[in-house]
Design brief:
Radius of gyration: 15 Å
Strand content: 5-15%
Low-confidence stretches: none
Strand order of the largest sheet: 1-2
Shape: globular
Order of helices and strands: EEHHH
């Protein structure tokens, strides 16, 4: 159903100890908020995941506007 989208790290640097992993975004913010048990705006603003929720929404919007409708 294509509900999850991943974003791979920008670069691979084999010389660093830090291991970069892909970020996972759920395409539907309502589903994300349901899974986090967020039911109101006050719950969202007080939740530690508010930044990640906003980042996911922006990421999905950028992908929607930059990828042609017929595919990748």
């Amino acid at each position: 159903m294509l509900l999850i989208r991943t974003l791979r790290p920008w670069s691979d640097n084999v010389g660093k100890r830090l291991i970069k992993s892909s970020k996972v975004y759920i395409r539907h913010s309502g589903l994300t908020h349901t899974l986090l048990n967020i039911s109101s705006l006050d719950d969202l603003l007080g939740h530690p995941g508010v930044g990640a929720s906003w980042e996911g929404k922006v990421f999905i919007r950028v992908v929607k506007t930059s990828v042609p409708p017929n595919g990748f």
